[in-house]
Amino acid sequence: MKEAQANLVVPVVAALASLWALLSPANSLANALLLVALALVALLKPQQWVRALTLAGLTVVFTVLIREQSDDKFAFYGLIGTLLSAALLKVPTYIKVLIGVAILFVSIPLAGLGNSLFLELGVQVAIFSALALGLNVVVGQAGLLDLGFAAFFAIGAYTWAIFGSGQANNFIAGNHFPLNPWLFFVFLPIAVVTAAIVGVLIGLPALRLRGDYLAIVTLGLGEVVRVLANNLDHPINLTNGPQGITPVGRPPVDWLINILNGLGLGRVYGRPIDESITYQIFFYVLALVVVAIVIVVNVRLSNSRFGRAWVAIREDEIAAKAMGIPLLPTKLLAFATGAAFSGVMGAIYGAKQTFVNPESFTLNQSIFILAMVILGGMGNIGGAVVGATAVTLLNIDILKNLSDQLNTWRQTGFTLLGYNFANLPTQLEPAKYERFVFGLILILMMIFRPEGLIPEQRHRAEMEEARLEAKDEGKLQEGSA
Amino acid sequence: MKKLAILATGVLALSLASAQTVIKIASVSPLSGPQSVLGESIKLGAQLAIEEAQPRFKAMGFDLQFAPQDDQATPDVGVAVARRIVNDPDLLGVVGHLNSGVAIPASEVYKDTNLVMVSPANTNPRITDRGYLNVNRVCGRDDVQGPVGAEYAVKTLKKTRLFVIHDKTAYGQGLAEAFANRAKELGATVVSFVGTEEASNFQPLILQMRAQKPDLVYYGGIYDKGGVLIKQMRERGLAMPVMGGDGLDSSELVKIAGKAVIGTLYTTTSGPIDTLPKAAAFAKNYKAKFGKDSEAYGAYAYDATNVILAGLEAAIKANGGKKPTREEVAKAVRQVKLDGITGRIEFDDKGDRKLSDYYVIYMKTDSYPGVVQKIIQFAPPKKG
Amino acid sequence: MSIAELLSILPQTLLEGLLLGFVYAMVALGYTMVYGVLGLINFAHSEIFMIGAVTGIEVFRYLGNGGNPYLILLLAFIVAAAVSGTVAVLVERLAYRPLRRRGSKNVLVPLITAIGVSFLLQDLVRAIEALWHNEFNLQYPSYDTFNYDVLSKLGSPLGLTLAVKGLIVILVSILMLAGLNYLVNRTKLGKAIRAVAQDMSTAGLMGINPDVIISRTFLIGGSLAGVAGVLFGLVYTNVTPYSGFQPGIKAFTAAVLGGIGNIPGAVAGGLVLGELETLGGTYLGFLTGGNFGSEYAQVLAFLILILILLFRPQGLFGQNVSEKV
């Protein structure tokens, strides 16, 4: 379609859909049309400012919709889609920033006041984004396969949990603990440093190895950290073992309650702002800010000589060495950076949950983080964030919506294509097969989009090249057969 | 904005008026992964109770629905599920969780809206020691059950060399520690106290037993590993009795261990099904509905759900037949007095059962359930 | 504990470690062979192993009442090998081959696919067993014939006991390993596998169809895992749809320990790991006064793995291939 036509079609469709959706909320057809409008913004190629205006308009509409209907998942995913479109499409940078800030800091907290699930989703997406960014430095940028990444997350979480609760009294004499909860903010940099140091300690032996040897050693060391966390309740009680540590302190938020009430948000919330929603907003904003810092650090590092050195090592270790890149220190820096990113999120996670136990730091968790990085597009900062968002939302929301829906159908005897869902045997309870669907999505994604959702430029080129090469080889084989 | 708000309330009111008022009860437990079989027993127990109650609620004008959820046995998924649940205004009760490590952070979420949670499985003392209005449990406490087992092993069976194993979970370790501590107080020797995450290969532990020659093995953990341990012990010719907590109380224990189960002892708050007429009916209905015997936490989940439903009914009555608030339900659940299939249920002000009968059960043959050896009445500690 | 008492269980500990090691070795072979030809860590291999164990149970379920237990066991081995091998080939055909077709050189893409396949197979087996028998925990029958202590006739030297089924594990493993050795080193197929492992495109030019050879490799590795699954179930008695994961990770560790891609290495790695784990699990508690007990067996195994790899980065048997520049 020509640009002129697109200039007309996109805003008109968006406007019509908005009008319809606003007039009849919770109408799924209207909602669907809105999402179509959003897709059109991305697929057709209108002028930049038309695109920008349409996206801004959609942001407002989705925000209003989500306020009206606090469980409107359409609007929530519409917001995510708008954010994504604004970030990825060609729009003036200040518009990108504007839409981003509006959605992340206004729309979603507003939505969260009506339905706190959205804040929880936001926090978890932010936490896993930082983890994915950290692992992306190690795996994506430096090309070092790490299968035990959750260990650093654990280090960060336990760093604050041990001292932010009464736990440290078990091995430090005198009743000094829990520490003043304000010290949480001091412990964020401490968690960064601790995790980075552990990263170096693990890296020192592990990074002498290559490829899959590195993979198994990191897997092993990741398990070692978890087993230690699970067992160091004796001879000295450092981690309280499987019982976990609770309650982990959180910084006081009275000030924030006053601010939020002062902003008149109590009316939106339906009752005076209380501590629980304030903590959710607090951790949501804190996690976002930390992700933003992580991204800035990551971008700066990637464009520095260290970043270039990582890519050089990933592409060809021997050539990199020949060019005078010191291998071990450069790799160690990648390890420490990745560890630092996840360490700080560990501390936030511990405070957010008020509870830390080893079950959060299993091999499965490491694998999930790796899946985020690869699904998003290895080596790409945007890819890591998108991958983390996709996997997290899939795991804790989308698949659950799906099974809730199927379950409702089962209870109301809904019939689809002649099959009555009331006949669904309990063995096939939809809630039991979320991981199954997740596995299926992983496989299909890898088959149809192996370069990830948002591939790194260099990587995309390589994949393309490889595809052509494979084609040639195929021809060759056919010829020889 | 104001107009929109009015519009929205109007639409909301319309949608509420159109159908029968929906009330949902959720079960939250792991439904995928290695612990799914335990989580599913919770789900099925709750499902049975709800399906039995549906006609009753229909008569009162409510559409009672069941919303099973998978917490994947991990705290972050558990908390996200908890957030989902508290934001569903129709949801008035939660049966769950399986893992204390998930229940503790999730119940912090339920507490925000006073959504009542009745746990069928979390025996960790901390669950109720926090004193939340909305958190209750129908199962025992580790710090009561462990000592009951120790009393029996040391005083009645006169065992002196005890080999204590646990499965490195919050439940298993808590139970094993409580057992070992009481046993030591009573003068027995704990020759070894070991934890293992292993699910299938217990040879290293069996070798240790050969060297230590204990006269009783205590297992703090669940039947799926406990049964394997017992079977492997007997196959390697070790004959000392094995004792455990309510984690062993399941027909699956017999299935897994086979003949080797003979001689095993366990403590439980849920009396053998054949002693209570209601329990026998439960067992029959469960089997008819799901095609298998009730396992693990099925009976507790059934009771937990019925406690919530009883509280809910009382709250509806007190509210003049209208849908009550979550806080009203939570308060009503605390007041429930019910003869469940696991005995009399009455909560104290922390949400523990006031007085629990602990049964010591002996597997005389390889058929479930075993024979009651002793009934010990035990109240939970006043202070946590 | 006196030293004499500690030593009294040492021979039995070593024997138990050997049994465990043989099971690990058989599974490790599948990892190593696939890695050899594709350079892929086939995470789904642990599920192939689990499927073997579950298939074995189904054979016993339908033939277990009466009949000669040895015959039924033999049949269980054959059926399990066939089923596991078939599933392995299907997985390769449906999940990995499309990736190769697209020419992706990134090893992490198949790794994530393998993880997806692993999730899929676990829940698939769970669904099948639930619908078919309403069961989750599956048991191998405990035949008295298999539990008979063969060493009791010899007067139990060193206090050792070895049940018939332990003997079966050792004999079957050795037989399978010898067979594999013959296959890889003495047959045309073996030659082709080695050729593909060395250089896939050159092998293609020499008239070998790499796809066929890769498929056969998955078949062989899968069948071995199937047999290993039956052995595992026979000795450790209980199997669930999630039983593959832990042994799978350990077998993978064993493969790396021995030098991944190397067949004798996988066997050696499996045996070393089996012994380490059993020795650690048994003695750690005694040696540290109960402070660091059995729960650290895995940590010990991993630490020793790291130590070994530090001094021999290519694994115990791996060749130190100089990087192609």
Automatic annotation (TrEMBL), chain A:
UniProt KW keywords: Cell membrane, Membrane, Transmembrane, Transmembrane helix
Subcellular location(s) of the protein: Cell membrane
Gene Ontology CC entries for this record: plasma membrane
Pfam families: BPD_transp_2
Recorded GO MF terms: branched-chain amino acid transmembrane transporter activity
InterPro entries: ABC_transp_permease (IPR001851), LivM-like (IPR043428)
Principal place of residence: membrane
Membrane topology field: Multi-pass membrane protein
Residue ranges of the TM segments: 48-67, 97-119, 131-162, 182-204, 281-301, 332-351, 363-396
Domain of life: Bacteria
PANTHER family: HIGH-AFFINITY BRANCHED-CHAIN AMINO ACID TRANSPORT PROTEIN BRAE, HIGH-AFFINITY BRANCHED-CHAIN AMINO ACID TRANSPORT SYSTEM PERMEASE
Protein name: Urea ABC transporter, permease protein UrtC
Species this protein is from: Meiothermus granaticius NBRC 107808
From TrEMBL, chain B:
Organism: Meiothermus granaticius NBRC 107808
Descriptive protein name: Leucine-, isoleucine-, valine-, threonine-, and alanine-binding protein
Ranges where the Leucine-binding protein domain occurs: 23-364
Superkingdom as given in the UniProt entry: Bacteria
Keyword Signal found: yes
Gene3D superfamilies, sorted: 3.40.50.2300
Biological-process GO terms, alphabetical: amino acid transport
Lineage of the species this protein comes from: Bacteria, Thermotogati, Deinococcota, Deinococci, Thermales
Pfam families (UniProt xref): Peripla_BP_6 (PF13458)
Family classification: Belongs to the leucine-binding protein family.
Keyword field: Amino-acid transport, Signal, Transport
Segment forming the signal sequence: 1-19
From TrEMBL, chain C:
Keywords linked to the UniProt accession: Amino-acid transport, Cell inner membrane, Cell membrane, Membrane, Transmembrane, Transmembrane helix, Transport
Keyword match Metal-binding: no
MF terms in GO: L-isoleucine transmembrane transporter activity; L-leucine transmembrane transporter activity; L-phenylalanine transmembrane transporter activity; L-valine transmembrane transporter activity
Chain segments annotated as coiled-coil in the UniProt record: none
A GO BP entry: D-alanine transmembrane transport
Subcellular location: Cell membrane
Keyword Isomerase tagged: no
Cross-referenced CDD domains: TM_PBP1_LivH_like
Pfam families, per the entry: BPD_transp_2
Residues annotated as transmembrane: 20-41, 70-95, 107-128, 162-184, 218-237, 296-312
Bilayer topology annotation: Multi-pass membrane protein
GO CC annotation, single: plasma membrane
Record family assignment: Belongs to the binding-protein-dependent transport system permease family. LivHM subfamily.
Name of the protein: High-affinity branched-chain amino acid transport system permease protein LivH
Source species: Meiothermus granaticius NBRC 107808
